[in-house]
Write a structure and sequence with these properties.
A seven-stranded parallel β-sheet has the order 3-2-4-1-5-6-7, sandwiched between helices. The termini are far apart. The chain has two domains: 197 residues, P-loop containing nucleotide triphosphate hydrolases (Rossmann fold), CATH 3.40.50.300; 100 residues, CobW-like, C-terminal domain (Hypothetical Protein Yjia, Chain: A,domain 2). Helix content is 25%, strand content 24%. It is built from nine helices and twelve strands. Strand 6, helix 6 and strand 7 form a beta-alpha-beta unit. By secondary structure, it is an alpha/beta fold.
Length: 336
């Protein structure tokens, strides 16, 4: 009986809204096409996993999908990460490779020693750390957002996403990143896809941490909060756009995403009436959500992440987007 090779782990990190889940779906698709057993471990800031729903809908053939919510894979949920990876190591026919997507509010420093955990030692190998950075973010964020800078500094490969949407911004970001991190390979991606011949994220050169390097809190667990809500009825698309694109009355909206059905929009030919919405870099994007492998539609939900947000206002505003059918009682929002 041949001994099982160590399970390879690829960490995918980067700021909120950078395009990590799009990149992850591309990676998973390539692994499945190559005939490898691959699993994904997704960590999200908030009580529900929208990114997990997106992956479930896109990649039903995965060897495993696990969602970690309401905490950080690097610290408060680290034990859950280790236990999930350990179980996959011993699972018959388990994954050969695992993509670990962190929340955009996490410093991945404390994930770089996962393979040294006693439960994982000799059974896992860190294959690389891919950092996704959106070129639509203000270019000064590399200097003014310490967490983004650290996520990039730890990378074995940087993907500069959304380069197709603003080539001039991509050019500016590429200059800043190459000047700051000359030793790290950099690739501009379009629709989450790297050009042919680009470096393989699974063949990353993950270097030892510099002496004195310690994890830091991002804006995440000090000031940010996630406001979640489950939609019970279809949503008004124009009202959703107006709410998410308007400046918030208080605080800063860092990210919004969710799944919904739109009032007045018929189901598509695949039988699904679900749409994913994502707000990042001041842009609201919609994408089709197919039925789940069970034949059921994905659950409808919304997540708003920010600092200084009025939770009661946002719950009321999100609930106000719904358009219940005639004779249906609308839920009343009670802040707790």
């Amino acid at each position: 009986m041949t001994e099982r090779r160590p399970m390879e782990i690829l960490i995918v990190t980067g700021p909120l809204g950078a395009g990590k889940t799009t990149a992850v779906n591309r990676l998973l698709k390539a692994e499945v096409a190559a005939g490898r057993r691959v699993a994904v471990l997704i960590n999200e800031f908030g009580a529900v996993s929208v990114d997990g729903a997106l992956v479930d809908a896109e990649r039903p053939e995965l060897a495993g999908v696990e969602n970690l919510v309401n905490g950080c894979a690097c610290c408060s949920l680290r034990d859950d990460v280790v236990e999930t990876l350990r179980s996959w190591c011993f699972e018959p026919g388990g994954p050969e490779r695992v993509v670990l997507e962190t929340t955009g509010l996490a410093d991945p420093t404390d994930l770089l020693d996962l393979e040294l955990e006693p439960a994982l030692a000799g059974r896992t190998r860190l294959a690389g750390l891919l950092t996704v950075v959106s070129c639509l973010s203000p270019v000064d964020h590399l200097q003014t957002r310490p967490l983004l800078h650290r996520q990039a500094a730890l990378a074995s490969l940087i993907h500069l996403s959304k380069a197709d949407l603003d080539p001039s911004a991509a050019f500016a970001w590429e200059g800043e990143l190459r000047a700051a991190f000359r030793h790290i390979p950099l690739v501009a991606t379009r629709h989450g896809e790297a050009p042919a011949g680009s470096p393989d994220p699974w063949q990353g050169d993950v270097r030892p941490l510099p002496e004195g390097w310690v994890p830091v809190d991002g804006p995440s667990f000090a000031a940010a909060r996630a406001i979640t809500l489950a939609f019970d009825h279809p949503v008004d698309p124009s009202a959703l756009e107006a709410l998410l694109l308007a400046p918030p009355t208080t605080g800063e909206l860092l990210r919004a995403k969710g799944v919904c059905a739109f009032d007045g929009w018929a189901a598509r030919n695949d039988g699904s009436d679900r749409w994913a919405f994502q707000l990042a870099d001041g842009r609201l994007e919609l994408s089709r959500m197919p039925l789940l492998p069970t034949g059921q539609p994905p659950p409808c939900m919304a997540v708003a992440i920010g600092t200084g947000l009025d939770a009661a206002h946002w719950r009321k505003a999100l609930r106000g987007l719904e358009r219940p059918p005639a004779g249906t009682r609308r839920k009343v929002v009670v802040d707790r």
